[in-house]
């Protein structure tokens, strides 16, 4: 099944929740909806499911208009941020419930519930009630219920948000494999860039009710088409600095000068916004072309495997991501390095005009 | 061996001990004291053992009152609980209607028992009461001071009017705590309204319903004021429930021994029913879990 949204708009009162979204999802594809809270991810999913009608626009399935069709007839399944299971039914009955409503025969129900439960590693919990399960097991049950009925559209709305970090990683690793061999269109909403990258597939970046970019996830990551996309698809958000190109050089608002070379060499004179991801700034010079910059250390966030050093200079703030634990003294001046080959350049309209080549972004090129 | 005993700790327990003693244990023991003695005056008293208990338990007036009480409390629960759930389900979920409904529903709960009795006593009168007059106008021979059935029904309607709101408010709170995603999930499954009620709303309301049923049981089992104000337990003994009977024995006839014995039995019945109900409901919950 191919799901196509055509010029979908959703307004509630004076507020626009979804603003002219057109997108086409391929059969069997894994699609990540990446956006901040309130970006319209849940509303868009509810419209895809048929839980809410769009104010304007059409929804097509294999070219047939299904815009007004109620959700029960669409063969969709949805997994929510909260763990939603029928509280008085045990795990088996919970997983079986959509099949029972479809009128599948008992033997077939048993076979499918068992196999789905095995897939989700909850086959030993079938006679428990949801309230006796851990959060991870509850969410596994909810996912099993969504997967058991061979739906054509599976919507996962931030399903891992309420799990603790261990369980989240565990399930996150499993999800792409679980869904790989199916024809189902999967839509997975998340706010975390990391999660989007780990899940792979295609990624639609949402901002204020619009889909600003849609494409293979890594490609979107390497070419965030707008400043906002860069901010959404980087954690910590991409460092931004105003800049001007004149006399064959790039002058950053922080007072530094960068020679125009490589992917930046074709840029015309004018005003730009330069973006650089935190992991591409370093306190050590990584190559011969690196430019040294100075700044005052404001804050150091230590996660264990990484340290985020916040540096301030001439009204420009930078976040530097360093591997390992670093303990810079707060308030002290420090020197850090930026590689001009790793800069994103956005024009005055915040559109991407130059992105570093992929191999350089991945750090493979010397 | 090295355990340090600090007797000061007892002082911390003393206030609680005194309060419980004065509020519960001493009054209860006084009743126990009356129930096993025949007292003529402070100096003349005889120990009678279980005689009073036997006498009270064999009293046919008590049997009648008990049956009347059980039927009454059963009717109260049978009507108020489904009605309360039904009203809670139809209340608006948002908007100005919510506060309007809450205020309307809370109003009866604020009225004292004797005032409720008085309101309905006047309301039901055939000569000057709006309700009684209208019923008679419609051709029904309604008169609660002469017709036992009318009196009994009036007391029941009074209680429903007074207390259904409590069940409604409890259920409404339970319903409001269900996340919207449950309803969406059921909708995606294609579940019917009945299935949504049976498998989502009812289980989510279970704990508040248990509290509601317990409160209504205890309260209606101890009903006194309303029938007292309405007809004083009559006509005849039509609305003589256990409390009325107890007061008749204790205050009317001044038979303190049998009254005390009966008080204890009354207390044990309520305790027993509450315990059984609570245990059964909680076990049912657990059995479903297993």
Automatic annotation (TrEMBL), chain A:
Entry-linked InterPro entries: AAA+_ATPase, ABC_transporter-like_ATP-bd, ABC_transpr_FbpC, ABC_transpr_MalK/UgpC-like, Mo/tungstate-bd_C_term_dom, NA-bd_OB-fold, P-loop_NTPase, Transp-assoc_OB_typ2
Keywords, alphabetical: ATP-binding, Cell membrane, Membrane, Nucleotide-binding, Translocase, Transport
Pfam families: ABC_tran, TOBE_2
SMART domains associated with the record: AAA
Keyword Nucleotide-binding annotated: yes
ABC transporter domain segment(s): 3-233
Family: Belongs to the ABC transporter superfamily.
A cellular-component GO term for this protein: ATP-binding cassette (ABC) transporter complex, substrate-binding subunit-containing
Stored CDD domains: ABC_Carb_Solutes_like
PANTHER family (alphabetical): MALTODEXTRIN IMPORT ATP-BINDING PROTEIN MSMX, TREHALOSE IMPORT ATP-BINDING PROTEIN SUGC
Listed name of the protein: ABC transporter
UniProt xrefs under SUPFAM superfamilies: MOP-like, P-loop containing nucleoside triphosphate hydrolases
GO molecular function, one term: ABC-type ferric iron transporter activity
TrEMBL record, chain B:
Pfam family of the protein (one): BPD_transp_1
Regions crossing the membrane: 12-36, 70-89, 96-113, 151-175, 227-247, 259-281
GO biological process, one term: transmembrane transport
Key word Ubl conjugation present: no
CDD domains: TM_PBP2 (cd06261)
Gene Ontology CC terms: plasma membrane
UniProt cross-references to InterPro entries, sorted A to Z: MetI-like, MetI-like_sf, Sugar_ABC_transporter
Keyword Transmembrane helix: yes
Location within or outside the cell: Cell membrane
Keywords: Membrane, Transmembrane, Transmembrane helix, Transport
Domain ABC transmembrane type-1: residue ranges: 66-277
Topological relation to the membrane, as annotated: Multi-pass membrane protein
Listed PANTHER family: GLUCOSE IMPORT SYSTEM PERMEASE PROTEIN GLCT, TREHALOSE TRANSPORT SYSTEM PERMEASE PROTEIN SUGA
Annotated family: Belongs to the binding-protein-dependent transport system permease family.
The protein's name: ABC transporter permease
Species: Thalassospira alkalitolerans
């Amino acid at each position: 099944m191919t799901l196509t949204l055509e010029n979908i708009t959703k307004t509630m009162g004076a507020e626009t929740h979804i603003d002219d979204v057109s997108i086409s999802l391929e059969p069997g594809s894994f699609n990540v909806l990446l956006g901040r809270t309130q970006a319209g991810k849940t509303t868009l999913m509810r419209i895809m499911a048929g839980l809410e009608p769009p104010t304007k626009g059409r929804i097509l399935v294999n070219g047939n208009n299904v815009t007004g069709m109620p959700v029960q007839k669409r063969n969709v399944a949805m997994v929510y941020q909260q763990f939603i299971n029928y509280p008085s039914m045990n795990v088996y009955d919970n997983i079986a419930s959509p099949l029972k409503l479809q009128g599948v025969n008992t033997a077939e129900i048993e076979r499918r519930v068992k196999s789905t439960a095995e897939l989700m590693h909850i086959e030993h919990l079938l006679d428990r009630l949801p309230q006796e399960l851990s959060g991870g097991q509850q969410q596994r049950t909810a996912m099993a219920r969504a997967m058991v009925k061979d739906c054509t559209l599976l919507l996962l709305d931030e399903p891992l948000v309420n799990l603790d970090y261990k369980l989240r990683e565990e399930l996150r690793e499993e999800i792409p494999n679980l869904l790989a061999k199916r024809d189902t269109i999967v839509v997975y909403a998340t706010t975390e860039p990391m999660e989007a990258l780990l899940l792979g597939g295609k990624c639609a970046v949402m901002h204020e009710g619009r889909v600003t970019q849609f494409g293979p996830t890594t490609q979107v990551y390497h070419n965030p088409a707008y400043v906002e996309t860069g901010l959404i698809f980087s954690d910590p958000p991409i460092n931004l600095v105003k800049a001007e190109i004149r006399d064959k050089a790039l002058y950053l608002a922080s007072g530094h000068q960068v020679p125009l070379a490589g992917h930046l060499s074709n840029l015309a004179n004018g005003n730009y916004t330069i973006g650089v991801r935190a992991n591409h700034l370093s306190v050590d010079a990584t190559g011969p072309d690196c430019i040294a910059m100075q700044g005052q250390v404001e804050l150091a966030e230590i996660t264990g495997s990484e340290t985020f050093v916040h540096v301030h200079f001439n009204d420009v703030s930078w976040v530097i991501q360093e591997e390992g634990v670093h303990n810079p003294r707060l308030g002290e001046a420090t020197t850090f390095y930026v590689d001009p080959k790793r800069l994103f350049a956005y024009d005055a309209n915040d559109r991407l005009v130059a992105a570093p080549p992929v191999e350089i972004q991945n750090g493979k090129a010397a | 061996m090295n355990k340090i005993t600090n007797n000061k700790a007892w002082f911390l327990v003393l206030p609680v001990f005194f309060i419980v003693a004065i509020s519960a244990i001493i009054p209860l023991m006084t009743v126990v004291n009356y129930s096993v003695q025949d007292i003529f005056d402070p100096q003349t008293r005889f120990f009678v053992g279980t005689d009073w208990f036997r006498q009270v338990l064999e009293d046919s007036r008590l049997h009648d009152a008990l049956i009347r009480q059980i039927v009454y409390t059963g009717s109260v629960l049978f009507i108020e609980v489904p009605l309360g759930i039904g009203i809670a389900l139809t209340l608006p979920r948002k908007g100005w209607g919510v506060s309007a409904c809450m205020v309307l529903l809370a109003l009866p709960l604020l009225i004292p028992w004797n005032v409720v009795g008085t309101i309905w006593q006047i309301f039901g009168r055939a000569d000057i009461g709006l309700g009684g007059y209208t019923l008679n106008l419609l051709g029904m021979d309604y008169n609660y001071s002469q017709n036992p059935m009318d009196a009994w029904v009036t007391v029941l309607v009074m209680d429903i009017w007074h207390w259904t709101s409590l069940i409604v408010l409890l259920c409404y709170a339970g319903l409001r705590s269900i996340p919207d995603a449950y309803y969406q999930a059921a909708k995606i499954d294609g579940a019917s309204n009945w299935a949504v009620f049976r498998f989502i709303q009812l289980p989510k309301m279970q704990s508040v319903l248990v509290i509601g049923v317990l409160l209504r049981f205890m309260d209606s089992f101890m009903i006194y004021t309303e029938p007292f104000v309405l007809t004083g337990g009559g006509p005849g003994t039509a609305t003589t429930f256990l409390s009325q009977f107890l007061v008749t024995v204790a205050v009317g006839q001044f038979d303190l021994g049998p009254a005390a014995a009966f008080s204890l039995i009354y207390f044990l019945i309520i305790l027993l029913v509450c315990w059984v109900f609570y245990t059964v409901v909680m076990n049912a919950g657990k059995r479903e879990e297993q």
